Amino acid sequence: MRKPIIAGNWKMYKTLSEAVDFVEQVKSQVPANDKVEAVVCAPALFLPTLVEAAKGTDLAIGAQNMHFETEGAFTGEISPTQLADIHVQYVVLGHSERREYFNETDEAVNKKAHAAFAHNLVPIICVGETLEEREAGQTVSKVSSQVKAAIKDLSSEQVAQAVIAYEPIWAIGTGKTATAADANEVCGEVRHAIAEEIGAEVAEKTRIQYGGSVKPANVEELLSMEHIDGALVGGASLEVDSYLKLLEAG
Ligand code: PEP
Which of 116, 160, 195, 250 would bridge with 203, disulfide CB 3.0–4.6 Å? Predict the structure, then answer.
């Protein structure tokens, strides 16, 4: 049985006081962790304060990116060592916005996945096709190759603990959601790619989220699907009420 995981991705939104206010309001209302994993992936600047604010509760704090090196001359970057040191638990890797605007490659995502596990961080690895790729019938080949590249040379235990977020790029922040059936079909292909790379038993354990305009009105149907074990949510994770409703569906 795979435990649902709902992760908010705040991107470059909120001030520090707004972020703290959100965590203060949400932390006592989060469902018990044995029912659903509740995560908020916040701007890096806020992470130490939010980890402290959420301490001892069932709300976990994640980062939205990190470098794969433990330290070094990489101006502006944040290392896995630094995230682990302040007790961040999750890190989003390979979000399509980072792939598109910051040239993040499959190879870098794989290095980051290895680095995450080396520092006890759970990676939320994003994959997904563009509209052009979908229309050209390339969805499965694109997503499968991204998944296989991301988990290359990870151990079975690590892949079982990883979270993969299937996020069709055309559905992110656009209000267009994949139908539950379409999302489930591609999430099933993600599981199939994991099985091909490392084995069916491991693939049954890996949690696969859907992301792309998930909101309280559609989250229940998406989560009822066989291969969808949670959601990675941008816009609808920014408001307390809406985030709590997403968690209720978990
Ligand atoms: C995201 O940021 O990963 C995302 C899916 O955004 P939204 O929910 O706003 O589409």
Answer: 195
Cβ–ligand 1 contact at 212 (below 6 Å): yes
DSSP code per residue over 36-68: -EEEEE--GGGHHHHHHHHTTSSEEEEES---S
- Ligand 1 atom with the smallest distance to the CA of 236 is 8
Atom of ligand 1 nearest to the CA of 167: 5
Of 192, 188, 212, 211, which Cα lies nearest the Cα of 202?
Answer: 192
Query: What is the enclosing helix (H) or strand (E) of 150?
Result: helix 139-151
**Ligand 1 contact via 168 beta carbon (within 6 Å):** no
Q: Which residues of the chain are modeled with pLDDT < 70?
A: none
Identify any residues that bridge with 127 across adjacent strands, giving them in sequence order.
166
Looking at the chain, the whole-number percentage of residues with pLDDT higher than 70 is 100
For the record, the structure tokens of 79 come out as 């290392």
Q: Is 11 annotated as a binding residue?
A: yes
- Ligand 1 atom closest to Cα of residue 11: 2
Residue 173: what pLDDT? 86
d(CA 246, CA 36): 10
ipTM exceeding cut-off 0.90 for this assembly: yes
155 is in an annotated binding site: no
**Bridge partners, 126 (sequence order):** 165
Which residues are designated catalytic? Answer: 95, 167
Residue 234 labeled ligand binder: yes
Residues 93, 65 contacting (CB under 8 angstroms): yes
Q: Rounded CA gap, 50 and 88, in Å?
A: 9
Q: Is 172 touching ligand 1 by the criterion CB < 6 Å?
A: yes
